[in-house]
Structure prediction request, 227 residues.
Amino acid sequence: MGKKTQIELFLELAKPDKNGVSRWVEKSEFTGKYADLMFTNGWSWGREDGNLAKKYKLERFPVQGAIQKVRTNGFCKDDSFNQAIRKDIKDFYKTKKCVMLGVNGNSVNTKIEIDHKDGRKADARISNIKTQTLEDFQPLCKAANDVKRQICKECKKTDKRWDAKNLKGNPYSFYEGDENYSEDLGCKGCYQYDPVEYRKQSVKRIAKEASENTTDFIMKKLYGDEK
Prediction:
């Protein structure tokens, strides 16, 4: 038998059960026959895009920023979503400004990234470059896209959508639907999904309310009781 790979060694040590859940493995256990598992700044066998993380959900326990133990906590679902974006769509958006922050710069955080509006990336039509449309994407600078990615992860975990009123001056929580994620509506209606459509719908709604109410009513909707 040939030498075991690092992943094989870790699984032998961690012993995940039939559900893919293992015990916590301390970094101090990477000695003797398991010495090849030891890592310092890099961690090749435990990378988020590595083969182990493609099969198992990896949990890391850091102490003062350094990982001290790790375990598997279940299997990853088969993810066949193709994140490739058709060239004509990328070419269209790469010169546009970020729809959230209004920038398109050269620094790391201001460079434009083409964002899948649907943060769950579960729609087979959008996964197919032949059936993608411009409306499925939007230009976001890296800073905005990084934040949106974390917000979408939290929504996927809790099925609670992000409230647009977290941004002061936004008059409505959602432009369609409510805080509860539903399969029927999906991400549509969330500010993160389409901030431009959110603004358009907000203008229509607030214009209607303005025609029926006083200016004070509108100011209170936008800014609360702030003086």
Summary: DSSP finds seven helices and five strands in the chain. The mean pLDDT is 90. The CA atoms of residues 121 and 187 lie 10 Å apart.
